[in-house]
Automatic annotation (TrEMBL):
It comes from Paludibacterium purpuratum. It catalyses: 2 GTP = 3',3'-c-di-GMP + 2 diphosphate. Residues 493-626 form the GGDEF domain. Its EC number is 2.7.7.65. This is diguanylate cyclase. Pfam families: GAF_2 (PF13185), GGDEF (PF00990). It is an enzyme of class 2 (transferase). One of its GO terms (cellular component) is plasma membrane. One of its GO terms (molecular function) is diguanylate cyclase activity. GO terms for biological process: cell adhesion involved in single-species biofilm formation; negative regulation of bacterial-type flagellum-dependent cell motility. SMART domains: GAF, GGDEF. It comes from the Bacteria.
Length: 626
């Protein structure tokens, strides 16, 4: 059967076409042509479509006379598939037999016209379906030629327009994501924004981003705004491997893994149930790489099996590059944040007090530890002071010298510091020159060494004193005597020494016990002390033998002092616990004064010892002078 236009002349049609479309362009023109053809040819269905991607497997319907026509359809098994080989296709009858999937449509005849680009590649087509077998007259082909050329041009223009708009949207999204990233927006929010934008721009897609964890073995979910929560729970923490789904495999292989049909692909063998349950029939995964390092995986899912084309690959690569930048930025910021938190923690909670000072001694930072050390309640009042307000023994000029000197190594020194109430504490200061933000500053830590100092002093004292009696020990006494001999010679000044030895002390020990003997030694020293001047020094030379150094004292004076001391000693007594009685004791004393022939202190001491020997020989309990 011929078509309805046989009754209309080409001139009439040409005029009608011009009237129907002269003011139209773009999509409106395409729609008008489709309607015009359907009306005049009494076609069952007229449609214009364009290729979605290359190679062409699906086409998008741009205009159709069929109500509720799908947005797009797969070419396989349709007469349109043949048009995309680049040639006009006319089947005047028997369409249902040639293309069984069209049986139900009631179409018997098909006329298809390809739109070809410069390389002869078909990028769109015009299709007309007729319920009856239909042949179009040759003159109609001539009439149609400029129409198909214009349709093709409009399609190209629309395509460019669409691409331009998509590129603008992509750029806007890209900028938005980067802006959010630099504004320190939480990572999930940045990635959600990106994936939402992609899903709006690519209807039917569901996106996800997963990060490879520290072990490099497991993927952790970062963002997937549209995928079902139960599915996400199932894949969060998935281990990577050469054939573990799309994402696990992409991360492991460091290559894009495109699974067009999850129910068929071997990588999804173990997850088929999951894919079925959530109707996820395709999954394209792209590893997010920074050099050799895998940061994570970007994935796009579809509810239908979907073949990825060149445009999809370009988009996937663009998105994963962007995500890579976002993740690296986040990683850097996170590392900085941690570092700064560690420093703040050290500054706040370190046992040592820490301050940051400028080179003029002003406080820039004060740690909790330092506030505790100076017993201050808060930093406010302290910030207004200068570091030397807290030093007890350094002048501001000394401190300025330290602050302004250029030292490569930390400067460590001990100094006395003040508490807020003015009392003192000992500090060991470590001052380090640091460069912060281009400014040359001093980072100083103060350790409270008050207790350590006390301990050191006690140890020093112990090392110089006799542990039983508390008077100077032999070494300390001899050292002091030697010093005094030197001084007495230089100025010159008299100097005398008493040698003192308890009489029959062995008997005390034997009779009353060693502890009573100790008590006698302690009593002797303790009760002799008030008789000595500040500059005098008593020392225990050993056992029950003592010496007393009397600076600025001549022999007569010394003998007098010895006699006074002896009289006092004879009065001394100690309690003997067992006998409930006190016992007395006596001693002998030898006196010698520094003479020109005394080579040193020991020599002087030897002469006093000689005098002591004489006192013992003279019956004890007396003073002898040499
Ligand atoms: N309790 C006590 N006894 C000491 C200590 N050091 C030495 N002695 C005793 O002092 C006594 C000294 O005895 P001797 O050297 O015989 O002298 P002495 O008995 O005092 O006799 P003369 O010096 O000759 O009067 C000994 O019994 C020592 O054990 C001490 O730290 N504590």
């Amino acid at each position: 059967m011929h078509s309805a236009i046989d009754n209309l002349g080409p001139e009439h049609l040409q005029t009608d076409l011009w009237q129907s479309t002269y003011s139209l362009a773009g999509e409106a023109y395409v729609h008008a042509i489709v309607e015009w053809l359907a009306r005049h040819l009494r076609a069952q269905r007229v449609m214009v479509a364009r290729a979605i991607d290359l190679p062409v497997t699906r086409v998008r319907v741009v205009a159709s006379t069929q109500r509720h026509a799908p947005d797009s359809f797969a070419l396989a098994g349709t007469p349109c598939e043949l048009v995309y080989r680049g040639q006009r296709l006319v089947q005047t009858s028997g369409l249902g037999q040639t293309f069984p999937q069209l049986c139900d449509t009631g179409s018997d005849s098909f006329h298809g016209y390809p739109f070809l680009d410069d390389q002869g590649q078909c990028y769109g087509h015009l299709a007309m379906f007729f319920a009856d077998s239909t042949t179009l007259p040759d003159w109609f082909d001539t009439l149609l030629e400029p129409i198909t050329a214009r349709l093709g041009a409009e399609l190209l223009h629309m395509e460019q327009q669409t691409r331009l708009e998509a590129a603008e949207r992509q750029l806007a999204l890209h900028n938005r994501v980067l802006r959010l990233t630099t504004q320190h927006t939480p990572l999930k929010q940045v990635l959600d924004t990106l994936l939402n934008g992609i899903e709006i721009d690519h209807p039917g897609t569901l996106c996800s981003i997963m990060a490879l964890d520290r072990t490099g073995r497991f993927l952790r979910l970062l963002s997937a705004p549209s995928l079902p929560a139960a599915y996400l729970a199932a894949i969060d923490g998935v281990e990577i491997g050469p054939e573990i789904g799309s994402c696990g495999a992409a991360a492991y292989r460091r290559q894009r893994v495109i699974v067009n049909d999850t129910l068929q692909h071997p990588y999804w063998a173990a997850s088929r149930e999951l894919a079925l349950r959530f109707e996820l029939h395709s999954c394209w995964s792209q590893p997010i790489l920074s050099g050799d390092r895998v940061l994570g995986v970007f994935a796009i899912y579809h509810h239908l099996p979907s073949v990825a084309g060149a445009n999809d690959f370009a988009m996937i690569e663009h998105v994963s590059d962007l995500v890579c930048q976002v993740l690296l930025h986040h990683e850097t910021m996170e590392a900085l944040r941690l570092k700064s938190e560690h420093y703040q923690m050290l500054l706040r909670h370190g046992a040592d007090g820490t301050v940051v000072l400028d080179r003029e001694g002003r406080f820039l930072e004060i740690s909790e530890g330092f506030l505790k050390q100076i017993c201050a309640e808060g930093p406010e009042a302290i910030m207004a002071t200068r570091i030397w307000d807290w030093s007890a023994n350094l002048e501001p000029s000394d401190i300025l010298k330290i602050l302004q000197s250029h030292h490569d190594q930390p400067l460590i020194f001990q100094t006395a510091m003040r508490h807020v109430d003015g009392s003192l504490w000992d500090a060991e200061i470590t001052a380090t020159a640091v460069e912060i933000d281009g400014q040359s500053l001093i980072w100083a830590s103060a350790r409270d060494i008050t207790e350590r100092k006390k301990l050191e002093a006690a140890l020093l004292r112990e090392a110089r004193l006799d542990s039983l009696t508390g008077v100077a020990n032999r070494g300390n006494f001899l050292q002091a005597l030697q010093k005094e001999v030197t001084r007495a010679r230089r100025y010159p000044q008299p100097l005398s020494v008493l040698m003192l030895d308890l009489d029959h002390f062995k008997n005390v020990n034997d009779q009353y016990g060693h502890s009573t003997g100790d008590d006698v030694l302690r009593t002797l020293c303790r009760e002799s002390a008030p008789l000595l001047r500040k500059e005098d020094l008593m020392g225990r030379l050993g056992g029950e033998e003592f010496a007393i150094m009397l600076p600025h004292t001549g022999v007569e004076e010394a003998a007098e002092a010895a006699r006074r001391l002896l009289a006092r000693i004879l009065d001394m007594s100690v309690q003997v616990p067992e006998v409930h009685d006190r016992i007395h004791f006596s001693c002998s004393i030898g006196v010698a004064s520094l003479a020109p022939e005394d080579a040193d202190g020991e020599r002087l001491l030897a002469r006093a010892d000689k005098a002591l020997y004489q006192a013992k020989a003279a019956g004890r309990g007396c003073v002898k002078v040499l």
